[in-house]
Amino acid sequence: MLRKRGFTLIELIIVIAVISILIGIALPRFRGMQEAGYVAQAKGELRTLQTAVESYYIHNSETLPAALTDLTSDTPNVIGSALPTDPFKSGSNYVYSPATDYYVIYSVGPGGTGSASVTGAGVASDTGNAIYVTNGSPADTAP
Q1: What are the percentages of helix, strand and coil residues in the chain, rounded to 5?
Q2: Is 135 helix (H, G, I), strand (E, B) or coil?
Q3: What is the pTM of this model?
Q4: Does domain 10-138 match CATH 3.30.700?
């Protein structure tokens, strides 16, 4: 008696169901890792921009740049000829906000709605999920 070799329809459906369950479990984890990568990228680029602003301040009679675009022509040139873009806001640069002797540079962060500001006293605060650097001090967030 000859038997045909192969899978039955039920076996194929079970294999497809198991694979789809595994994909459903793994997909959110990959998205979380991508977001964590964007956060790390933003923090690194913000530190570079902070270094460039401090360099500009030192080499230009202790005046802050009016805009981040001023940093692309500064000597020594820390960031090159192109500004990095915010990974959370496609095609847009990081936001720079100078205030007297203080500044804040921020990314809108995960969700794309964060913001940060600095007062004349040098206290920086943020709303939403903003990622920022400043030469001032962070707002007291203790309860």
Answers
A1: 40, 20, 40
A2: coil
A3: 0.76
A4: yes
